[in-house]
Amino acid sequence: MARQVTLFIFVLSLGFVLGQISYTIPEEMAKGSLIGNIAHDLGLQIKRLTSGKARIFTRDGDGYVELSREKGVLIVKERIDREALCKQTTQCALHFQIILENPIEFYSIAVQIEDINDNAPTFEKEELKFEISESANVGATFALERAADLDVGINDLKSYTLKPTDNFALKLNNNAGVNKNVEMVLQKPLDREKQEQINLVLTAIDGGEPQTSGTMLIVITVLDANDNAPVFTQKIYKASVTENSPTGKIVAAVTASDADDGSNIISIDDKDSAQNGDVKCFMNNNIPFVLTSSNINFYSLVTDDELDRERASEYNITVTCSDEGVPSLSSSVTLTLQISDVNDNAPVFERSSYEAYIVENNTPGLSIFTVKATDADWNQNARVSYILEDSSINGVPVSSYVSVSADSGVIHAVRSFDYEQIKDFQFRVKAQDGGSPSLSSNVTVKVLIQDQNDNPPQVLYPVQTGGSVVAEMVPRSADVGYLVTKVVAVDVDSGQNAWLSYKLQKATDRALFEVGLQNGEIRTIRQVTDKDAVKQRLTVIVEDNGQPSRSATVIVNVAVADSFPEVLSEFTDFPHDKEYNDNLTFYLVLALAVVSFLFITCLVVIISVKIYRWRQSRILYHSSLPVIPYYPPRYSDTLGTGTLPHVYNYEVCRTTDSRKSDNKFGGAGSQNVLIMDPSSTGTMQRIQSEKSILDEPDSPLEIDRKSGEVILTGQIDYEKAKLLQIDIEATDNGGLSDSRVPSLSSSVTLTLQISDVNDNAPVFERSSYEAYIVEKQHTSADSGVIHAVRSFDYEQIKDFQFRVKAQDGGSPPLSSNVTVKVLIQDQNDNPPQVLYPVQTGGSVVAEMVPRSADVGYLVTKVVAVDVDSGQNAWLSYKLQKATDRALFEVGLQNGEIRTIRQVTDKDAVKQRLTVIVEDNGQPSRSATVIVNVAVADSFPEVLSEFTDFPHDKEYNDNLTFYLVLALAVVSFLFITCFSGYYISEDLQMETVPHPVSLQPPCDSILSSTLLRHFGNRDSATCVQLRGVQDD
Q1: 175 CB contacts (<8 Å, ≥6 apart)?
Q2: pLDDT tens-digit profile of 935-980?
Q3: What DSSP string runs through 847-866?
Q4: Running DSSP on this structure, what letter comes out for residue 356?
Q5: I need a surface site. Which of 192, 537, 656, 767 has the fewest CB within 10 A?
Q6: Mapping DSSP to helix (H, G, I), strand (E, B) and coil, where does residue 530 land?
Q7: Quick check: 203 and 165 in contact, CB under 8 A?
Q8: What are the C-alpha distances in Å from 31 to residues 1, 73, 218, 605?
Q9: DSSP for residue 890
Q10: 3-state DSSP percent of the chain in helix, strand and coil, to 5
C-alpha cells in the first residue's frame, strides 16, 4: 500500500497550533487497516493525544476514519467506496480535523482516496439491432452505444474492439473515452443472398491493472435489394396445341426463378387465343406509377414521379386486366408497395437557438438544459446523436465547461460556475443522424449564469488597520447635517444581491449621528456641544438585499475636537510594533540619560575632589589665613565686598491654582551662605537675613525671612502680568561682639516668568445671536432681486427655501408672501477619490495572481468615488501605464482589473499598473493610483521581489542603532574615566605622604552650626577649624 504524507505546521501567537497533513490510500481497504501514524507525522507524543482528549471532527458526520489514541494511528473505520463517495470526480478526499485540548490544537487532515479498478465497463443494452440494406455503400457509418465505467483516471474506459472484422471496422473520434463517439464503418459490401444476418461483439476495455471489460452483441439484419433479374430454365420454349382441346389441358409450362426476395415482375396469362387472348391492363389513378408493356402480356410497374417516403411510405396499387373478348372478361390484383428509406433529411432542432439559465455555485454534473432534434427519416437514418462542437471560451476548451449526452441531448455542467468570474457563454451543439452518409445540423446554446448571494459586502472605507486607530475629526462648531465621513462598500454580486443598505448598529451617542440608508453618509443630527465626549465609536452594518442577506460591519472612530492634541489624549491605541519600538526607544534613551548623568556626575566629582585637594594643600602648607571659608554651590567668596556678583534668573511654570501644590518656589534668598569674617572674634554662625520688597497687600508672592523661600500666596494671572522681577536683598547682623562693625548685604534679582494655561473660555461679542435665512439672502426692497451672501457648497447643502414678503405703501399696509426654493447646482470642483487600493506611503501592497489564472481572471477592483453629482460624478477607468500591457486590462466603467490572456511562467513576478480615474465634468478632473500585482503561486516568491519596507521601520531601526551606539560610547567613556581616576589615586597614594600628625579628632569642631556644614569633611578641615577657635 503506497501512502503519501504531506505536513504543514503553522504556529500562531494566540496560544494554539494549526497544522495540516495529507495521506493517500486506495479505496476498498479492509476495516481496521492502517492509514498513517498521525502522532509521528505531527511530531506529537502518544500521551499528548491521551491527555489532550484527541478526537476527530467532521462536518458531514461520516465516520470513515477512526483515531486510536493509544497507538497514535489513524485506521479505516468503514469500507470506503470511492465511487459512492465522489462519483466521477477525479480528486476524491476525506477532510476532517483532529482537535486536542489544554492547550487547544487543530490539525486539518486530508485522506486522498485513490481509485482501484473495481468496476468493469458496462453497456446500457446487452444487444443492439441494425437493419442495413445490402446496397449500402462502403464507408457508411453507424453510431454505436458508448460504455460507461464508474472508475476514474487510468482505471477509466480506454479502448473498444469489434469482432469479427469481415465486413465492419470500428471508428473512434480522436481517442476513445467517456465523452467520445463510437461508430461502426462498413468496409466490405453486404450480400443478403450469401448471409442474411451478421452477429458482432463490441468490447469495451479499461486501463486498469488487471484490465476489465464489458461486451455488447450487435445483430445486423441484411435487407434485400433488387439486384438479381429473373432467369428462365430454358432459352426457347416450343409447344403446339390442337383446337377444341379440352378445358384444363396443359399446353406448355414455362418456369423462371428470381434470386431476389419478394415479387418484382408482373406477368399475366390468358389461355384464350386471338382477340380473346389479347389482354390490356390498367391501374388506379393518382399514384406516381405507370404500367408499361415490355412484351406481350408482360407489364412493368415504373415510377412516374419522385418518391418521398416521408409523404407516403406505402402504396396499395390495384391492377385490373381485361381481354378483348365479348363479353370482356377481367381480373384484378392488389399490389402492396412499401417505400424504402434513404437518408435525405438532416436532423432539425425544435428551436433556432436556445438559452439556458443556471445558478452559480452549482454542483459539477448538474443537468442544465436539454436540446432536442428530430429526423424525418426512418430507422437507422432517423437515429440522432448529439455532439459538442469544438470551440473555446476565453481561451479554455468548451468541453471543460459543459458536456452533451450523445443520446438524449442533455447538457451537463462540468464545473461549478462563478458569476463573478463569468456571466454567460455560448457554444454550438451538432445533431447527426445514423445514415450513410450521415447528415447533420447545429444550433447555438447560450448559458446565462444567475447570481447567487454568495459574497458579503466588502467595506472599502474606512480602512480597518489592525491595532491602529484612524479617527474622523468633527469640530465642535459643526452644524446639523455636517458630513463626518462616508462608509463606502461594494458587493461583487449582481442585481438585488448587490443593493446595499447602511444602518447604525451601535454608537457612543445615538442622538448625535445618523447613517444614510442608501449612501452610507454619516452626518450629525444635532448641534455638537462642549459636553459631547471627544471619543465617539460608531458601529455601522452594511447589508445586501439578497435572500438570505449577507452583511459586514465596520468600526468608525470619530473625534469631536478642534485640535489634534485633544484627540491624541483620547486615542491612545497604537499598533503593537510601534508600541514595541517606542518602548525600546524609551528605555534606550533612559539608559543613555542615566549613563550620561553618571558620567557627568563622575566628572564633576573627580574635578571637585581635585580642586578641593589642591585648595586644601595650599591652605595647609602655604597659606597664612586662619580660616577656610566654605561657600555653598554657585556662590563665590565676597571677602567682605558686600555684593553677590551673580544674578540668578528662574523660570517657574505653575498653574493658577498653585497654592494647592505642596511644591514651593526656591530663590536666591533660600540659599544658606556661611561667611567667615576674619575681623570677627566671635563664634562663627550662619547669618542670614532677607528683606521682602513685595510688601504690597495684593502681592501674590511672599518671602520667608528665615528660610529665604519665595512662596506663592495669591492668584497669578498671565493675562495681567507675564513677567515678574523680584529684587531680594540679604543682610547680616554685623559683628557679633562688636557693634561698631557695620552689617553687610548682597542683592539678587529673581525673574519669574508666568506660563499661560487655558483658564479662559472663548467670549462672544454678544450674549446671543439671532439669524434668519431671509436676512442672509440679501433682498433688494425696490427690485426684489435676491443676492447670494455666501459661497455655496453643493456637497454641504443641496437646496434651501425661504419666504419673501411683498408689502405696499398704503396705510394700513397690505402684504402677501411667496416661498422661494433655491437649488444648488453642482460644479466639478472635486477630483475623484480612490478608496481602494489604499496607498500606504512607503509600504507595498500587492494583489496576487496565480500562474494558473485563466483569461478574464479578476485581479482586483479599483474603487473610487466623486463627491460631485450627476455627470460630474460619472467615473471612467483607464490603464495609463503597465509593466505588460498585453496581460491586463481595466474595465472602463467598473474599474475591474482582469487578465486578457493566459498567465505564463515567463511573465514577471512584479507587475506595476498605473490606473487613471477620470470624471465626466467639464473640465474633467482625475486621480491616479498605483496597483502592484504579484504573479506568483507562493508568498516566498513574492517577498523575493517586493523588498520595499515601510519608512517608519527604517527610521526606527536607524534611531535604535544610533541610540545603542551613543549608549556604548558614553558607557565606554564613563568606565574609562572612572578607571583612570582610581588608577591615578592609587599612584598618588604611593607617592604622596599623608599629614597624619596634623589630624586632631573631629569632635573638636567648634559648634553645632559648623557641624551641620562640615560634619563630613576630612581631618585637615577639622585642624584648621580648631586653629580658628584657638585664635
Answers
A1: none
A2: 987 656 666 666 544 444 556 667 788 888 888 888 888 888 777 7
A3: EEE-TT--TT-EEEE-EEE-
A4: E
A5: 767
A6: coil
A7: no
A8: 15, 14, 43, 87
A9: E
A10: 15, 35, 50
